[in-house]
Amino acid sequence: MINRMVRAAAFGLCLAFVYCSASAESPEGSPVDQGRYLAIAGNCMSCHTSEGGESFAGGVAFATPFGTMYSTNITPDPDTGIGRWTLAQFSRALREGVRPDGQHLYPAFPYTSFTRTSDADVAAIFSYLKTLTPVNAPARDNELHFPFSQRWLLGMWKMMYFDAGRYQPDKAQSAQWNRGAYLVQGLGHCGACHTPRTFLGAEDPQRALSGGTYKDSIEDKLVDWSASDLTSGPNGLGQWQADDIASYLHLGFNTRAGVFGAMNEVVVNSTSHLSQQDASAIATYLKSLPASAPQNASKPDDDILQAGSLQYDIHCGTCHLPTGLGSADTGPPLVGSAVALAADPASLINVTLYGAQRPQTPPSQEWLARKWKIMEPFADKLSDEEAAALLSYVRNAWGNKAGAVTAAQVTRQR
Fold first, then answer.
1. Distance CA 326, CA 332 (A)
2. Is 197 helix (H, G, I), strand (E, B) or coil?
3. Average pLDDT in the 264-272 region?
4. pLDDT digits over 150-209, tens only?
5. How far apart are CA 346 and CA 405, in angstroms?
6. Which of 73, 117, 154, 300 is disulfide-compatible with 137, CB 3.0–4.6 A?
7. What does the radius of gyration of the chain's CA atoms come to, in whole angstroms?
8. What is the DSSP string of 42-77?
9. How far apart are CA 212 and CA 214, in angstroms?
10. SS3 123
11. With a threshold of 0.90, does the pTM exceed it?
């Protein structure tokens, strides 16, 4: 039951992989080396390491529509961590969402995705976590609204929304495609952010990876962010090639987009350290996804578009060009931009009001060398009405087709 960005994990060294017919391809090396990479792919560090806290000791707050939840200590501390857990208990928690005491875990911990993880990968991850430095850090109590504070209700939630089971390779697809599907659906748990959710916080399987909305911070404020449509639709990754996706994951940018905002942690701490094979496998799988259903959104009227066009010429045309195509020397294209055309314009509004929010740690040397100008904040330059008109224009110019942005939506993001 979470509608928030699932934070990415910090990576160790990039390890070489060997392809195999099984769903879980593991790096060469010891089980601990394999587990380190897989724990990284599962985003363990960032979700279980609070700002300024000890690694893997928990305490990260997750804001949800049901209240605030806090991650737990997964160091091998015997009293407050997983030091006394057996592999069977760890596996049950990871893949079934059940603690050693039999209590259900909230799916803020994405066991709904991790359930697809193979036995070998679970064992490797457990081996790695057992090598961590133990930290005595008791779990912080969740702050959930009634009745969501009643854990027993999760049993009913699971009956409605949770399908336990390992990833089953598709024999009609290549080993690379299956590796990508395994990572996206399982350890990578991409759907946690990029899939819309039901009113009870479950991922909607009918709209898988078509874009979602979550809560995360910006300038010490908790606001909405929108995760892009990852399907091949025109408002998603339709204009991206597989190499574009792999470059974005590995380098933090491509010719169409650069990392910003809530995606910083995902790329800097996680995907930029993937093996090239894994980044390419994810790209192969994502490019195979059918286009999501078209948005049902109202087109802005001509007066709004005219006002937005004027604001665009004043503030945006220099970098993104009058054509919206951008350039390698100025800025990314807005034509067919998955961020600009998301069903929920929250992230587009955020980058307009607050600027690019670029990562403090460069995801790659290539990212440092690029020439794009830094997106400046326009919160003090645009009224809510002006920003709404500008973004409505961007979402409907040059062949783009997306819903109008309202002044109320901009107000909500300030």
1. 5
2. strand
3. 86
4. 999 999 999 999 999 999 999 999 999 999 999 999 999 999 999 999 999 999 999 999
5. 9
6. 73
7. 21
8. TTHHHHTB-TTS-TT-B--EEEETTEEEE----SS-
9. 7
10. helix
11. no
What residue has token string 């009227």? 301
Helix (H, G, I), strand (E, B) or coil at 268: helix
Query: CB of 224 within 8 A of CB of 413?
Result: yes
Cα distances from 153 to residues 143, 145, 190, 339, in angstroms, run 16, 13, 26, 36
Count each helix (H run) and each strand (E run) in the chain, helices first: 17, 5
Contacts of 245 (CB under 8 A, 6+ apart): 237, 254, 279, 282, 283, 286, 287
CA dihedral 176, 181, 187, 191 (to 10 degrees): 150
| Domain architecture of the chain: domains with CATH | 1-206 (no CATH), 302-413 (1.10.760.10)
- List the structure tokens of 294: 């078209």
Amino acid at 399: G
Given this model, what pLDDT does residue 215 score?
Answer: 87
Here the tokens at position 333 are: 């294209």
